[in-house]
Amino acid sequence: MRVDALPLASEFVEHFAAEGIEELYPPQAAAVEAGVCEGGNVVAAVPTASGKTFVAELALLTADGPGLYVCPLRALAREKFEEFDRLPGVDAGISTGDFDSAAADLAGKDIVVATSEKVDSAIRNGAEWVDDLACVVVDEVHLLGAAGRGPTLEVTLATLRRRAPDVQIVALSATVDNPEDIAEWLDAELVESTWRPVDLRVGVHADGSVRFDDGTDAAVPVDTADPATNPDTEVTAELVRGAVADGGQALAFVRSRREAEALAERLTDERLPSVVDAAGASDSGDGADGPDAADATHERGEDAGMDAAAVAEEIREAGGTETGDRLAEAAAWGVAFHHAGLSSDHRALVERAFRERRLSVICATPTLAAGVNVPARRVVVRDQQRYAGSGYEWLPVLEVHQMCGRAGRPHLDPYGEAVLVAGDEAGRTELWDRYVTADAEAVESKLRDPAALRTHTLALVATGFAASQADVLDAFAGTFYASRTPNPDLGGDVGDAIASLIDDDLLAATGDGGIEATALGEQVSRQYVTPDTGVELLAALRTVATMAPEHVTELTAFEVICDTPDMVDTYLGNAERAEIYQFARSHAAELTTGMTEADDFEGWLESVKTARILTEWVDGASVEELVESYRIGPGDLESRIERAEWLLGAADALAEVLGVEMPALASARAKL
Ligand code: ADP
């Protein structure tokens, strides 16, 4: 099927042709046959890189009105926004920022890109543009199964469909075990395919060889006898070295930030040939050892060195922290690490440089697998387990499949290869059964979680969509949960949620069996904090009202917002514990929780640590100083500052409803 045979204006056909899209990939053709250009609901469960974005564009461009593209990550939202904004004559908008607005400026856009949380919050704040939508595309719809954001996605989609009953829904999913359940929920045609533009083979390394799922074996002997080295790391280094020597790029996944950095350091010792260098050598073909070819290779080699040096320089320019310096040092050898502790600028830089083939290897934590587009020739999954509170647990099959799916760059690689590293033959069998031949998990709703029910019940009532328990149940009838559960008797659970919200003074009974949101409940919903956070904020603000005004400082403001479930926890090491304890004691008069009052003392001490970091930040400490003193990454500081800005705004709005004077909230926020 050809693009010029589709119901698209010629300028779009030309635009796609310029991007190399003229003939549809098989899953794209299947989506067209399923009605994606005719307003039909379609669920496409297809592998990474099989051209889902084009399917989205087809739906959005052929829809009879404005479209919304919902995606989980902000970095991804930006990527897609830029792509849609390049479409000729299309006015695209993006909304990922403030949570307490209706994003009214998005009315009138042809295509809006937003995270599901942002769409949810815009609805809570009265956005009317959602009623006019002709098409909604949901990317990564398998995240329905994620705690927290999954329920938000399903309730938001149910609400959108209630408000705009004719809206076309196109949902894009990774290959999961039950895409038919998602299709059934959305009354959609299912397009399911394992087709990929580049062949992928997946294998497991043990005892000096990789056994692949296409029946082949490859000898990759590694000397793992040296007790001073980690055998899995040595195997990983060898697999990476082989891919790069062959002109490819590699992604190596390990379990933690520290491991990612350590592996990057180990790989710089390899003195890998740079990607450009190796590509030069293989471009020159069989005559590679002739004098001309050698010259060409030599020149490219120099370019490669310069390129790596340029990446290192860009990294240094993007922020001088100790982590940044280490990243730059590794990048000079074509190697990078990538994890949530890196600043977002550094993360974006690493991703881009890798896509531009200016880096040979990224050593990453599993988060990269679900993130932006960074395909590689070879993917090595060194660790298949991750530390989870009390011990190691296996990564979900879906996550490992997504890592493996990163292998193979269209037009650049003849094939993609993913290798899981096992310690021995028994490990090989285990990994083979667990990941190579196994299907990804089924997607299951998490809506029944009491915290999720409280959040969405309050939102439905506060926005006026529900004025009774029956109305709430009616709204939930359109969710994935209800469609998946034969007798989705949520009555008892929703009743419990309503009773607890009334106890918390966020909802009130109206006497005639109805319910309404209190002024506090309405504000909690608008500010987009969870009811649990709302309750914590209100309790702390009531304490503030009893404190002497001179004791209510910016530290108080930060403690108020940090001791809530919506702030991210900050790890408190044993060595720091005593110091933070001393800090809390010496500032006891400024804190809303007394030293003996905290229900969860450890958790509270952690929030005091976060509050202290944020106080030093607004007092002018540099990223570098804070990273150094508190052993957090620049990315950790960024995420806490961002949340603090949101939560201080929420606390300020709630203080106003309560009639509590707390100028420190606004002053701290202004300085962030
Ligand atoms: P994903 O399915 O992971 O979202 P993308 O939509 O990003 O994949 O597509 C991956 C790459 O394939 C992009 O570079 C895109 O331009 C290219 N592509 C998509 N469809 C086609 C096509 N029909 N012909 C050629 N290239 C295509």
Automatic annotation (TrEMBL):
Highest taxon in the source lineage: Archaea
Location of the region described as Disordered in the Swiss-Prot/TrEMBL record: 274-299
EC assignment: 5.6.2.4
InterPro entries: DEAD/DEAH_box_helicase_dom, Hel308-like_dom4, Hel308_SKI2-like, Helicase_ATP-bd, Helicase_C-like, Helicase_Hel308, P-loop_NTPase, WH_DNA-bd_sf
A GO BP annotation: DNA repair
Enzymatic reactions: Couples ATP hydrolysis with the unwinding of duplex DNA by translocating in the 3'-5' direction; ATP + H2O = ADP + phosphate + H(+)
Coiled coil: none
Family assignment from sequence similarity: Belongs to the helicase family. Hel308 subfamily.
Subunit structure and binding partners: Monomer.
Protein name (Swiss-Prot/TrEMBL): ATP-dependent DNA helicase Hel308
Organism placement in taxonomy: Archaea, Methanobacteriati, Methanobacteriota, Stenosarchaea group, Halobacteria
